[in-house]
Amino acid sequence: MKEPINSQPEEKPLLKLKNVSKSFPGVKALDGVELDVRAGEVHALLGENGAGKSTLMKILAGIYQPDGGEVILEDQLVHMSSPLEAREHGVLLIHQELSLVPDMTVAENVFLGNIPRFANIFVNNRHLNERCGEILTRLNCKFKPTEKLGNLSIANQQMVEIARALVFQPKVVVFDEPTASLTDYEKVVLFGVIRELKESGTAIVYISHRMDEIFELSDRISVLRDGTYQGTFYTRQTNEDEVTQRMIGRDLDADIEHQPPELGAKALQVSGLGIEGLYSDISFDVHAGEVVGFYGLVGAGRTEIMETIFGLRKPDSGSVQINGQNLAINSPSDAIDHGLGLVPESRKEQGLVLGMSCKDNTTLANISEFTKLGWIDTSAERKVFEEYMDKLRIKCPGWEYSTLNLSGGNQQKVVIGKWLSTSPKILILDEPTRGIDVGSKSEIHHLIRELAKTGLAVIVVSSEMPEVLTVSDRIIAMYDGRITRCFDRGEVTEDTLIRAITGQTER
Ligand SMILES: Nc1ncnc2c1ncn2[C@@H]1O[C@H](COP(=O)(O)OP(=O)(O)OP(=O)(O)O)[C@@H](O)[C@H]1O
Ligand SMILES: [Mg+2]
């Protein structure tokens, strides 16, 4: 294997992190980490879930204090004791988990901590909204500066975070998994913004689990593994295999060998389902033992259909049959009683109670199973959590650990474990590997195939083509609230699939 390069002496870094360490109770999150970032470069930070990427960046942004090490900005040793101080030094972090205030307007959020004041006292709202409007136009956003942030979709809220980067004219901007909830179009806009910042000499740190993005955008790549620094590579001189090797310390599991499914009875049959304005005329079925992929662009209506099946929305028309029976599913608890499980798209809002322990989150959906005469059987709960911690490789010091303190990807794994522990007959996974590193991703794909083999009916909603192609026996393509085509595994090609999700084919 090639030895990674370090920065060349003639290229002076704008930012240097030296020998940075940080421990949390039970976890050494960072151990002597190095990073240097130059002006005008996009520097990708790569590592498995829980490797320490967000922690390192939170230290840089003054959110956490390091136990040891130095932050050097333009040759000066700096102490960032708060996010405000970091911003005064020109460092801005765009968070993985949104950090905006839902009750304030878009404009107020954009200027958060930096509100232009009139005569230093009054906030000039008109001025605020005007300046915000200009930035939103630049970002091609369709919503208004005066809109309440909480009313926006997650993707639009993410755009508001990004708008903040343009207000501060920072020296260093960190993007921590910015594209996880963006549509392809918004992603193009974001990449434009990043290139603009780069041209203007800003140093950019970019964190993502999507290799295609990293290779498209970055100039150099630094790798972390288990809180340790694994080296820096020039993007043009390396490749996915090499950095993945560095990142997970082994080669990626071999590709899934696809065996045709052993189909059981029809587990789920959806006929003519529709909700005015969201989707219409949705009919499909899923057999026991089968994985059906739902592929389409963000906004095609896939999530809404799954939420309807799970009792979170009321359909205007159509019916859902489970095991050949018409059942009334009016709430998620009806759905769970009938053997349905849903791993939702947004783990923070729908999937986890962040203040609760890993164990309690895992058993939350079927707590009655663990309750005997009013007592909760904690050791049984623990066993279940530990089983999934192992199966899903959840990086966490123990069952009592609060999910609030887990890395983003590990939170997602706890949500998956929670639903698997309900032993569902029909399992719906909505964007199951969003924010999950490449190593764990392939493990989750294996797990999905295994689950189907044991007789589960599985639906996977995904916006990632390689993912649907890897896991599905059949693929249902959606465009604008309708099913455009249904492919058998053997007949699908990338080209026909793309045409189907962009409305270029008729049923
Ligand atoms: N506030 C905290 N309290 C306790 N432990 C924490 C805290 N923040 C992070 N950790 C732990 O530190 C380790 C590194 O987490 P970090 O969030 O930096 O990972 P990451 O590389 O960003 O992962 P991901 O790709 O999943 O976002 C994890 O084991 C995590 O559980
Ligand atoms: Mg992170």
Automatic annotation (TrEMBL):
Keywords linked to the UniProt accession: ATP-binding, Cell membrane, Membrane, Nucleotide-binding, Repeat, Sugar transport, Translocase, Transport
Broad class of where this protein is predominantly found: membrane
Membrane topology: Peripheral membrane protein
Residue ranges of domain ABC transporter in the record: 15-251, 263-505
Record's GO cellular component terms: plasma membrane
Places the protein is found: Cell membrane
Gene3D superfamilies: P-loop containing nucleotide triphosphate hydrolases (3.40.50.300)
GO molecular function term, any single one: ATP binding
Protein name: D-xylose ABC transporter ATP-binding protein
Organism per entry: Marinobacter vulgaris
Origin organism lineage: Bacteria, Pseudomonadati, Pseudomonadota, Gammaproteobacteria, Pseudomonadales
